[in-house]
Amino acid sequence: MTGVAVAATPDASAHSTENLDPAFPLHRGGKIEVRSTVPVRDAGDLALAYTPGVARVCSAIADNPALAREYTWVSNVVAVVTDGTAVLGLGDIGPSAAMPVMEGKALLFKEFAGVDAVPLCLDCTDVDALVETVVRLAPSFGGVNLEDISAPRCFEVEERLRERLDIPVFHDDQHGTAIVVLAALQNAARLTGRPLGDLRAVVAGAGASGVAVTRILLEAGIGDIAVSDSKGMIYQGREGLNPVKEALARDTNRARHTGSTEEALEGADVFVGLSGSTLSEEAVAAMAPGAIVFALSNPTPEVHPDIAAKHAGVVATGRSDFPNQINNVLAFPGVFRGALDVRASAITENMKVAAANALAGVVGDDLSPTYVIPSPFDDRVAPAVSAAVAAQARADGVARV
Fold first, then answer.
1. pLDDT tens across 180-195, in order?
2. Which residue is catalytic, options 50, 71, 110, 231?
């Protein structure tokens, strides 16, 4: 059928659904706002907050640009940037539809670490345009949190921004997930009596989070790790690999697995699912005794946690209704809090590992199969992570105070 497209109009059923869903009234008008931090009660206040007092501060910053971090909000504000191409499990829904998620991210920054954050949903998907836009906006911010940008473009966007900016740039879909996975895996390995160096892991998914998880586990000294995508295991010599996957092939899969994810899992110690695929009970049963299963796809894990728990020593998911939730909010607020506190010029690999170590340490002696990672509402988390990140920034020479 052909003809002129007509814009859809809301129907009664849509309104009925919105009226019944408690998420809609919570989001009405947005979830964040800007508030003043100084009073403007009279002409004297006005003269200090705005003209003529503000001109003296502007002149001082013009003479010494570093003073912007002292006399403006820059030292405590992060840009939360997306192009709307990989939003949650919804995919490429565009910048406008991404705004509720970015607002939510800004809310979490403030609630968990006292960091102010501004959601920026950009109406462009070209890598050059994204990078140039963020670079031009950067003087207004102390850090940049990239969010929900599809792979493999997200890797190039982050790399180029890190090269051009002297403030922290952090793609949370990559590194937030990686930090929390490493922390949980450290504790799971401790619980099951094995060092990381003795573990063989299989990661299902070679998108942003899968690549970052693999990289941080390599940095932490995992024994062996192999990665799969929708076409099977990634290995050197496989045709059609993009540059990111070619690099993974060089650095992983020493055992040269070339078949399916489930075939590679036979005898493996660790499964990390970040692909939206499914994993059979038989595959979990074929893993090594005391296996560790992180089925992290949302809302449907690769294997149901109750089924995985029949055969695995530790099970984690990305969901809040099961134990051991791998939730990025455990990482990104504290990471940025620590980086901003020392006015870091970057977030190094060592800072990410330090964040994971601190997060794992919060669990302490309470470690159990259903408690290898703290709750997002544990008020020890952000201070522990921020302190570790700040200390490592100083050790790495990227701190400016």
1. 999 999 999 999 999 9
2. 50
